[in-house]
Amino acid sequence: MRALRQALRTAAGALALTAAVGWGGAVFGATAPAAKDPHGHGAPAGVGASATQAVSIVRAPTDLPGPIGRRGPQRLRVDLETVEITGQLDDGTTYQYWTFNRKVPGPFVRVRVGDTVDVVMKNHEDSVVQHNVDFHAVAGPGGGGMATEAMAGETKGFTFKALNPGLYVYHCATPMVAQHIANGMYGLILVEPEGGLPKVDREFYVMQGELYTEAPIGFKGKQEESFDKLVNERPEYFVFNGAVGALSGANALKARVGETIRLFFGVGGPNFTSSFHVIGEIFDKVYPMGSATSQVVNNVQTVTVAPGGAMFADMKLEVPGKYLLVDHALSRLQKGLVGFLEVTGPANPAIFSTGPVKLSKAPASK
Predict the structure, then answer these.
(1) Structural domain of residue 334, as residue ranges?
(2) Helix (H/G/I), strand (E/B), else coil: 227
(3) In terms of DSSP bridges, do strands 166-171 and 93-100 run parallel, antiparallel, or are they unpaired?
(4) How far apart are alpha carbons 250 and 217 in whole angstroms?
(5) Could you tell me the pTM of the whole model?
């Protein structure tokens, strides 16, 4: 985490310099008490490890199933378990997360248009609050939320037909819905079109969210959720994949020069829109609003993604180096919202080079 802190400082310094001079220059986890919910859920009793025994809740960006490609419709089963778990939010800081399958975001669900999908959701027996799951890809009441409303220890389910190709958010929709989402209960489901998506070399799974805590970012110890900040939309943290530094170190996105990568990106929220941007790269193809059948948009710098929304984008990597994933509402970088894409391979001076600039005889631009 010290390395991340230094990287954050370096990134912030680079952004400041840029502004000044321009670019020319399935195992059960531990649970612990959560803050009291004023909407009747009550305060969880300690049922497992203490806050000092936090686990990683970060879902690696490479943790997603491979493409479905060309196959006919099938019947599939999706298993989800809702688990309340003490996780590491930052270096020396823990938080009581509510999760699907013990990670944030929940598992990447991948189906094909025409598939019949059985969703089975169990609320862990140690849970203190009710949970459910609402899939935006579902045509049916509550997206399955009403059918899966489960008390601790209960298992509920429903079946749906995947009708509309695209990338969709799912989340817990138990009241207070914003509280369940802010605590980590969101994920993505991809409904591939018939014949699949165009082939790429690598795929990554990234989601953005907010956390509303009593103490400001930088606090050491166990952070408690703040209901007042949540309803007034004043988050202390913005994060990718659940925690500060989630997309750094071993979990940084890694690729090679010449490869084309695809980013599946969604916003759990619950409240803030993202202006998703990769510093030093351009999205060659954007599938707007997560649509797998609309016309792609080419050569895009920044993509707006609403809370409860998604998109995916392809880009070919031309130059080696370390690239920053950010929300271009750049104050959020100081609240934890930065990820890293590390590209290795040979230099490409025809595209980008550093050092002394050779003067050109061409007239200077005015």
Answers:
(1) 200-216+233-344
(2) helix
(3) unpaired
(4) 23
(5) 0.86
Start-to-end C-alpha separation, the chain: 45
What are the backbone angles phi and psi of residue 169, rounded to the nearest 5°?
Answer: -85, 145
Task: Give the CB-side neighbour count of residue 294, counting CA atoms within 13 A.
Answer: 14
Query: Cα separation of 324 and 340, whole Å?
Result: 5
CB atoms within 10 A of CB 215: 14
Residue 290 within any structural domain of the chain: yes
Question: Could you tell me if 333 and 274 lie in one domain?
Answer: yes
Q: Rounding to the nearest 10 degrees, give the CA dihedral for residues 134, 178, 210, 285.
A: 40
If one counts the domains in the chain, the total is 2
Which of 177, 178, 117, 172 is CA-nearest to residue 150? 172
Kindly state the DSSP code that residue 228 receives in the 8-state scheme: H
Q: In whole angstroms, what is the distance from residue 244 CA to residue 90 CA?
A: 5
Q: pLDDT tens for residues 195-252?
A: 999 999 999 999 999 999 999 999 999 999 999 999 999 999 999 999 999 999 999 9
pLDDT in tens, 274-297: 999 999 999 999 999 999 999 999
Asked whether residue 144 is domain-assigned, the answer is yes
* DSSP of 117-177: EEEEEEE-TT-SS-B--EETT--SGGGGTTTT-B-TT-EEEEEEE--S-EEEEEE--SSSH
Neighbour tally for 190: CB within 10 Å:
27
Q: Domain with 276 in it: what CATH number?
A: 2.60.40.420
